[in-house]
Specification:
Metal_Hydrolase, hydrolase, MTA/SAH_deaminase, alpha/beta, Metal-dep_hydrolase_composite, Amidohydrolase, four-stranded parallel β-sheet, globular
Length: about 450
């Protein structure tokens, strides 16, 4: 079927940042087949959507997330040792395939409502998360996590690799879901396992690798103590610093690390909101981009960053760069929007399919209402998106020509059921947290 979006302010995010205002977009099947200014050529039988002057732009790309963890959102925010006191014990006891399905469904609802059409995820029981993405219509990189801290879905690395193989076998040729292998971090897998993952990756070059890298001082201290190297150098020598690596966070870096990363042509997902909340530092985004590294924006999990839309990340990523540079100039608004769209797609090696509105690409797009007073007057649409727009301004979302949301009504998922299921999980968590508190603080 043909869909014609008309009377829109079209931000293409192509190489020349071309705009059409008023403009139109034609979609046939899953593909964009025409873009232009003014009125579109007529097409008998087409679905015509008059956008009323609203912005139509590429759907946003969340380059790092833990969708199953949305059920941990807001848990023990002000408890210093919440990871060891609550999170890890709760994960070991409650993280099951069913819990990951429930958490991932809640996350999918939130992201669709917030303008995200593509997400890179890493967590446990990732075949469940892949099924949620398939059902919801989201485009996704789905990473089965491997770790050595008693993860809930594998008790040995052999069992973890078996889960990876199952995920890859099931989704290797899926049109929207790309399987991935996801070592948790250098310190939580170790050099020998990283080398094994590098060998596996060499045999499966089309499968992305996702990993937390240079995220904390703990990780840096581990690398210095055990290998007398930076954590980036340990990763390089293990064979994992290569173009299909999506490295999340990348906070604790020096110039030599950035040079190594650039020479290896890896890709980066920065997570400003969760890193700022944790007090872990500011990622040198400008330095990395100036060194030729593509950098996308990620939400991290809702346990860390609370929200999974990218509007919540825009101001922090821009402001942190400006604070580092001592000026308004670093990371102008248009570059932030590029990071959230075409550059994020490049980080995930999906830039030939999505990330910009161009003829021949997949029809992954969103419509943003300009009705709210806080969005006016408009001098620069990119500044509007970065510093004033909110998830609630997104009215329509489409992936591969399929509507996921129209007029704020979800087409593929049941938001009421998603909330109901998540509340049931939270009630179980609350009861267990009371038990933990009683055992830690006996009367």
């Amino acid at each position: 079927m043909t869909i014609l979006l008309t009377n829109a302010w079209v931000l293409t995010l192509d190489d020349t940042l071309s705009e059409h205002n008023p403009g139109w977009v034609r979609i046939d099947g899953s593909t964009i087949t025409g873009i232009g200014s003014g009125l579109p050529p007529t097409k008998t039988g087409a679905e015509i959507v008059d956008c009323g002057g609203d912005i139509v732009m590429p759907g946003m790309v969340n380059t790092h997330c833990h969708m199953g963890m949305s059920v941990f959102r807001g848990l023990a925010e002000d408890v210093d040792d919440r990871l060891y006191r609550y999170i890890l014990p709760l994960e070991r006891k409650f993280v099951t395939a069913e819990m990951v399905r429930i958490g991932s469904t809640l996350s999918a609802v939130e992201m669709i409502q917030g303008g995200v059409t593509t997400v890179a995820d890493m967590y446990y029981f990732e075949t469940e998360m892949a099924e949620v993405c398939d059902l919801s219509g989201l485009r996704a990189i789905v990473g089965q996590t491997l770790a050595d801290f008693d993860p809930p879905d594998h008790k040995s690395f052999d069992a973890g690799f078996a889960r990876v193989d199952e995920l890859v076998d099931r989704y290797r040729d899926h049109p929207l879901v790309t399987p991935s292998i996801a070592p948790h971090a250098p310190y939580s897998t170790g050099r020998a396992v990283m080398e094994r993952i590098a060998d596996w990756s060499h045999a499966n070059p089309d499968v992305p690798v996702q990993m937390h890298l240079a995220e904390s001082t703990l990780e840096v201290e581990w690398a210095r103590k055990t290998h007398d190297q930076s954590t980036v150098a340990v990763t390089r020598d293990a064979g994992l610093l290569k173009p299909n690596l999506i490295a999340a966070h990348c906070l604790q870096l020096d110039d030599a690390d950035i040079t190594m990363m650039s020479e290896a042509q890896i890709c980066v997902a920065t997570n400003p909101r969760s890193n700022g909340k944790a007090g872990r530092g500011i990622s040198p985004v400008e330095k990395m981009r100036n060194a030729g590294l593509p950098v996308g924006i990620g939400s991290d999990g809702a346990m860390s960053g609370n929200t999974l839309d990218l509007f919540s990340q825009f101001a922090p990523v821009s402001m942190f760069a400006k604070l580092l540079g001592g000026s308004r100039k670093p990371l102008p608004a248009v570059e932030v929007v590029r990071m959230a769209t075409i550059e994020g797609a490049r980080v995930l090696s999906l830039n030939l399919q999505t990330g910009s509105l161009e003829v021949g690409k997949q029809a992954d797009l969103i419509r943003i209402s300009l009705a709210a007073p806080r969005l006016h007057p408009i001098y620069d649409p990119y500044s509007l998106l970065v510093f004033a727009a909110m998830p609630s301004d997104v009215t329509h979302s489409m992936v591969a020509g399929r509507w996921l949301m129209r007029d704020r009504r979800l087409e593929t998922l049941d938001p009421v059921g998603a909330l109901r299921d998540a509340v049931q999980i939270a009630n179980s968590f609350k009861a267990e947290m009371r038990r933990i508190d009683e055992s830690h603080d006996p009367a």
